[in-house]
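Researcher: Let's do a round of design. I'm pasting the structure tokens now; please hold your answer until I've finished.
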């Protein structure tokens, strides 16, 4: 891959990663999960990091976020965020928050505190970001919940995470992440615990809110088609290395690596050939009515 500063997040990217490697201890010594990765994310850009399971996506994203286990070894030629070098070398010990960066994980249940209500958690984030009063924080929390589509704010604010559905929890996580006013939001498989239509809805929400707030996105996913639709640029990982990157809409045309082409080819395409055989809502309703008429519940 040749380096083109415009394609790689511009000349002064918000996130600048060059030559980043991550290794974990293994029975035979050390095993490399990320090898010499270079990626950049511009301010306001929405970038997706895709690849098969085990390709190193989470290791790369968490090395950037500072959330790797202490046993992981991170080396990088450059690792800077908003012009400041990030220290992730040699297993940074206890994970710590990087100002201006927020992270959303696959399963909100593991990242939301199970003991505290959504309202307390949201208020705490808002107050630590803005130092406002408790009632101002409650108003802001309500408005964030509405923005992420949780309109029954009274109930949601009082609920503990386990009292919400998976989709509601993921939306609450987005509210928490964005309420802190991050410049970069790293989302690791934010929708893989959700069904297909909820996944699309959450991705749409993520894209729209990030655009509205000017937040850059680094979305980690194995769903190449979903990412193609909801990101500006895609980065493809294979066996720990970045093998392709380019504008999402043109990835078919710009892919240089066989793995990327294979990945794009193997996604089922609901083309016109079989469209007439797919059930429509009307056909399902007609069939249900016919069954009900025959006494089948
Ligand atoms: N804490 C860890 N200790 C040791 N090895 C690890 C650890 N975390 C990840 N690995 C290894 O690093 C490699 C990359 O894993 P990683 O989780 O980064 O992949 P991924 O692309 O995010 O996969 P998935 O799509 O399944 O989430 C894998 O071989 C994995 O076994
Ligand atoms: Mg992962």
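Researcher: That's everything. Go ahead.
Model: Designed sequence:
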């Amino acid at each position: 891959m040749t380096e083109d500063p415009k394609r790689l997040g511009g000349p002064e990217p918000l996130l600048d990663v060059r030559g980043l490697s991550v290794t974990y201890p293994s029975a035979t010594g050390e095993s490399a999960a990320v090898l010499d990765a270079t990626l950049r994310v511009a301010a306001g850009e929405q970038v997706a990091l895709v690849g098969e399971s085990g390709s190193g996506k989470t290791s790369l994203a968490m090395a950037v976020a500072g959330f790797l286990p202490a046993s992981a070894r991170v080396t990088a030629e450059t690792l800077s965020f908003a012009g400041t070098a990030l220290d992730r070398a040699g297993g940074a010990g206890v994970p710590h928050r990087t100002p201006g960066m927020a992270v959303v994980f696959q399963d909100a249940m593991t990242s939301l505190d199970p003991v505290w209500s959504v309202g307390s958690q949201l208020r705490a984030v808002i107050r630590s970001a803005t130092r406002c009063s408790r009632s101002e924080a409650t108003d802001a929390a309500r408005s964030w919940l509405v923005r992420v589509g949780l309109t029954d704010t009274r109930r949601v604010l009082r609920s503990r995470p386990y009292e919400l559905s998976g989709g509601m929890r993921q939306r609450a996580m987005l509210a928490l992440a964005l309420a802190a006013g991050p410049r970069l939001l790293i989302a690791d498989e934010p929708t893989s615990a959700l069904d297909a239509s909820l996944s699309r809805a959450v991705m749409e929400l993520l894209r729209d809110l990030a655009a509205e707030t000017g937040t850059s996105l680094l979305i980690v996913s194995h769903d190449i088609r979903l990412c193609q639709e909801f990101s500006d640029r895609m980065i493809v990982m294979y066996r720990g290395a970045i093998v392709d990157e380019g504008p999402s809409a043109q990835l078919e045309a710009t892919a240089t690596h066989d793995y990327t082409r294979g990945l794009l080819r193997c996604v089922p395409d609901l083309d016109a050939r079989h469209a007439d055989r797919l059930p429509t809502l009307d056909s399902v309703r007609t069939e249900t009515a016919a069954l009900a008429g025959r006494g089948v519940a």
